[in-house]
Design a protein that fits this description.
The complex is a heterodimer of chains A (120) and B (282). Chain A contains six helices and five strands; from the N terminus they run H-H-E-E-E-E-H-H-E-H-H. With 120 residues, chain A is of the alpha+beta class. Chain A has a five-stranded mixed sheet. The longest helix of chain A has 9 residues. The radius of gyration of chain A is 13 Å and the shape is globular. The two termini of chain A are 21 Å apart. The chains are: A alpha+beta (120), B alpha/beta (282). At the A-B interface, helix 4, helix 5 and helix 6 of A face helix 5 of B.
Chain lengths: 120, 282
């Protein structure tokens, strides 16, 4: 689900240009499966779906697979369209060093929505 | 050489007291007729209403007026108060609105507010119905349940303008025109430090759930419109207010938390019948 990030938010992408200097490891959990997203200078250099037996990450966003699918729809439904819309419903958990998320909130939103299908 | 296209909006400063404290308040206005005082959202300013101020069908019959709350937009904090720990209270918010209406010598204006403005119109309906011809609540909810830490909106490790802007963008509908969404985000990015957070204090302090039943819509008609993508003031929250008061409300499809700025064209389509109803009622 998240492996495409290495392309949609990889080196040279619009997303990467939003956060020069940002390096961290983002854990994206979808149900029981975890993808570790390596970010260097704002660019996703790897999105590894694991399995990870002892994962280490800066912060994690965890939701069910169904929730991520709704969020990543080309036009998400109301209450599914934003991380905080999901948070309000208790559908996503923010774990770890949330400070990195909040300090770069627009960047991480753009990173995730880069996975949405392009609208014609 | 082509001349510039100049909007009808005029912006000026007025000096008046709010709760006995002298303030210099910026406001913009356009049109003539029934005064329509517009109240911006938390952490933003009056620019949000520029489409309403610029719509000739609206300004033909309404004197649209939008003031920047103190500490917002071009209304600086009162002298000596820049560094206070700002928390907007219901009492102070009501005092600002009434002081503006008094200073402008407005006789029974219409007040329209969005978000915290949508909440305060419920307070106006409850405590000051005689002062207003009608009230319009955009994204009105009686209460707000905390679901995130507002401390992140004013945090030493986080750029306030960036985080507030990013948060505001998420409250827009994904279908709203990108340029308008970007401008809505920009308004939030320009807010003063701690102002969005301080305004949201009212959002929680100003719970009016227990007083809703005391609102008499016969004394002052109340119109409620809410965007379907708003997860802060959810459609269900507005429905609860409307049900308690026994009034209708309007769901704005494909709209988020900032109707007047994120998708002004669509918003005006919803607003104009409401304004016409108010005008026809005299």
């Amino acid at each position: 689900m998240f492996q495409k990030l290495a392309r949609t938010a990889g080196p040279g992408s619009k997303v990467a240009a939003m956060a020069p200097g940002l390096s961290c490891t983002l854990s994206l959990q979808s149900g029981a499966s975890e993808t570790l997203v390596m970010i260097r200078d704002g660019a996703v250099t790897d999105a590894n779906p694991g399995p990870h037996l002892m994962s280490a990450f800066t912060f994690r966003l965890a939701a069910s697979e169904a929730e991520w699918r709704e969020f990543l729809a080309a036009v998400p439904k109301p209450m599914h369209h934003d991380l905080f819309a999901m948070k309000r419903r208790g559908a996503v958990a923010f774990e770890g060093d949330v400070r990195v998320l909040m300090a770069n909130l627009l960047y991480f939103k753009r990173l995730l929505t880069s996975l949405r299908p392009e609208m014609a | 050489m082509m001349g510039a296209r100049i909007e009808e909006i005029v912006g000026r400063y007025a000096h008046f007291d709010i709760e006995g404290v002298p303030h210099r308040v910026y406001w913009e206005e356009s049109g003539r007729g029934i005064p329509l005082v517009c109240l911006h959202t938390a952490g933003a300013d009056g620019r949000q209403y520029r489409a309403v101020l610029n719509d000739p069908e609206v300004t033909k019959n309404f004197r649209v007026m939008v003031f920047d709350m103190p500490r917002h937009g071009k209304s600086s904090p009162a002298p000596g108060t820049v560094d206070i720990d700002y928390r907007l209270s219901s009492e102070h918010y009501i005092a600002q609105i009434l002081a503006f209406c008094d200073a402008m010598e407005l006789e029974r204006p219409v007040a329209m507010g969005c978000s915290i403005g949508g909440r305060i119109v419920l307070h106006l309906a409850r405590w000051h119905p005689e002062r207003f011809r009608a009230l319009i609540g955009l994204q009105s909810a009686a209460r707000a349940t905390p679901y995130y830490e507002t401390a992140w909106l004013d945090h030493p490790d986080v750029h306030g303008g960036r985080v507030c802007g990013a948060f505001a963008e998420g409250l827009c509908a994904p279908t709203s025109p990108p340029d308008h969404v970007a401008e809505t985000r920009w308004h939030y990015s320009q807010g003063g430090p701690g102002i969005f957070k301080g305004d949201l204090w009212f959002y929680r302090e100003g719970d009016i759930g227990s007083e809703l039943a005391g609102i008499d819509v016969e004394r002052c008609p109340l119109h409620l419109l809410t965007g379907e993508y708003d997860f802060s003031c959810r459609p269900a929250d507005t429905a609860e207010v409307a049900e308690t008061l026994g009034i209708d409300w309007t769901l704005m499809r494909d709209m988020g938390h900032f109707p007047m700025s994120e998708n002004p064209g669509e918003f005006l389509r919803y607003l104009k019948p409401v304004l016409e109803k108010i005008r026809a009622a005299g």
